[in-house]
Amino acid sequence: MRRVRYEEWEPIYHEICDYFSFDPLEDDKAAHILSNLTNQDATQKLRTLINNQVVTVCGNAPTLENEINKISGIIIAADAASGVLIKNDITPDVIVTDLDGIDDYAVELNKNGTILVVHAHGDNISRINSWVLKFEGPLVLTTQGKPFGNVYNFGGFTDGDRAVFLAHAMQARKVNLVGFCLDDQDVTPMKKGKLLWARRLLKKLGYEC
Q1: Distance between CA atoms of 150 and 125, rounded to whole angstroms?
Q2: Does the global pTM surpass 0.90?
């Protein structure tokens, strides 16, 4: 498993921006706002936690509740999947989030050591401003655009597939996926597009979802 270099990711990123009519300048603006709010950089802590370990990435599909017994090793929750885990008395080691699916429990988890991988994009600037200063524990900052300073790009687009790319970048020995259902038709057109891209990106890592 290896980290995806930005040079490899950049053409995919621009294709995603064209597909959804996203403005890369807004993504960059959000990333700089995030960086200016905190100088946190827990990437080494994250790497130490994941390197050569078995990892389970938990997506937030409705199937997650029925797959709890498949979870093992280091647990990475994609955004709102963390809430499902908490309800089932499971504490995630890492939460990958663009801040639209978490609640106040994440502040306490982070304070107690759960690493939050906080993602900036053009549509979540208000959430960045509302949430980031509340976090007292380890943070890793990410962007889907060009990385800089303490803001990283490990590849991936949605919270779920970004969590898988992250595990690969941190050199996990094995990455298992639960709570991934990319065929859900009961979603908005925007969500359908995101699921389409999640499938494409996970396929690049060898997953058939």
Answers
A1: 17
A2: yes
